[in-house]
Amino acid sequence: MKKIGVLTSGGDAPGMNAAIRAIVRAGIYNNIEVMGVSRGYEGLINGEIKHMDVSSVADIIHKGGTILKTARSEQFKTEEGRKKAINVLEVFGIEGLVIIGGDGSFRGAEKLSEAGVKTIGIPGTIDNDLPYSEFTIGFDTAVNTVLDAITKIRDTSTSHEKATIIEVMGRHCGDIALYSGLAGGAESVLVPEEEFDINDVCKKLVQGKSRGKLHNIIMLAEGTSDAYELQKEIFERVGIEARVTVLGFIQRGGNPSSFDRILASKMGAYAIDALINGKSSRALGIKNNKIFDMDIAEALTMEKQFDSDTYQLTNILSI
Ligand code: ADP
User: What family does the entry list (predicted)?
Assistant: First the structure.
């Protein structure tokens, strides 16, 4: 293997830059030329490709976002679009491709490998919704960002003796709400994986109020229920006015945590080793603090196991 490409695709995540840096540096260390593809699969189709040297990835390990930019590509979902992408790879002499992204990007990688392109997928998404890996790059940073917000909201919530509903990202996965909720001492954590009873939420609010609790944080994972509907329902049931804070895109930015930088660095270097060893169509993951690889198609068919022990713990500790 003499020349490989790297791209970031789908939603960005803090730590993607650390992964790019590791791929470029580990590639150069192993005498492999690394080409950076801008704007994900869309950039690949358009031939937005440039050589990356050692200094092209200097001073980025600590930065959020992705220096390669990211995009969503409708064209790439078509056979014709993918044919163009494969032609571009041939023209540039790129023998292997590392894709940093979420499940959609992995589906794209799977299609490319079916067409004979050597691909390695690195899980980069704040949602932590890739079922085969304990963690994805960006998740830990997002949890820390949310935790910081909870801490600040708790101050004003306490001063005004108000309840607050904090809506966080995660699409169909409640991990951000769950982990930040536990770390932030939230009174209720509502996630799509577990049905919740609005009466339990209201009971906690009423009981908390009567025992002089000054704040009440309700963590709501997007994909569970509408925050404003929840606010309305709480008011109608128990007459308590909860504030709503939708954190939004703040969760996708910021300097990656040490955990994400280390995970990204390890996975980037692992991807190079995997390609050198002739592996293809592999998804990288982490389990018990060890990086591993598995068939990308199989990884995509797995079902995410919700961490119900941690969920139960948040309920026990928030009585
Ligand atoms: P993420 O990787 O963060 O889950 P998306 O789901 O938006 O983000 O996927 C990113 C890109 O991957 C899409 O814009 C598309 O180009 C490509 N992609 C997604 N699903 C498929 C698919 N089934 N076949 C081919 N390409 C896909």
Answer: Belongs to the phosphofructokinase type A (PFKA) family. ATP-dependent PFK group I subfamily. Prokaryotic clade 'B1' sub-subfamily.
Q: Is 130 in the pocket of ligand 1 (CB under 6 A)?
A: no
Query: Does residue 99 line the site of ligand 1, with CB under 6 A?
Result: no
Residues 16 and 60 in one domain: yes
Q: Residue 74 above 80 pLDDT? A: yes
Is position 309 within any domain? no
Cα–Cα distance, 251 to 217 (Å, whole number): 18
Q: Where are the alpha helices (DSSP H) in 239-307?
A: 258-276, 296-301
pLDDT of 198 strictly over 90: yes
The two beta strands, 118-123 and 216-221, are: unpaired
Which of the residues 12, 127, 175, 293 is marked catalytic? 127
pLDDT attached to residue 261: 98
- Co-location of 201 and 128 in the same domain: no
Residues 227, 127, single domain; the answer is: no
Tell me whether residue 215 is annotated as binding. yes
| Residue 245 domain boundaries | 142-253
Taking the CA of residue 11 as reference, the ligand 1 atom at the shortest distance is 3
* Chosen domain end from 225, 253, 281: 253
Same domain, 224 and 278: no
Query: Which amino acid, residue 75?
Result: Q
Residues 64 and 116 in one domain: yes
Interacting residues of 214 by C-beta distance below 8 A, sequence separation 6+: 157, 158, 161
Residues 7 and 53 in one domain: yes
Cβ–ligand 1 distance for 73 under 6 Å, the answer yes
Task: Name the pTM for this structure.
Answer: 0.97
Ligand 1 in reach of 41 Cβ (< 6 A):
yes
Q: To test the ligand 1 pocket, which listed residue (44, 84, 105, 304) has its Cβ within 8 A of the most ligand atoms?
A: 105
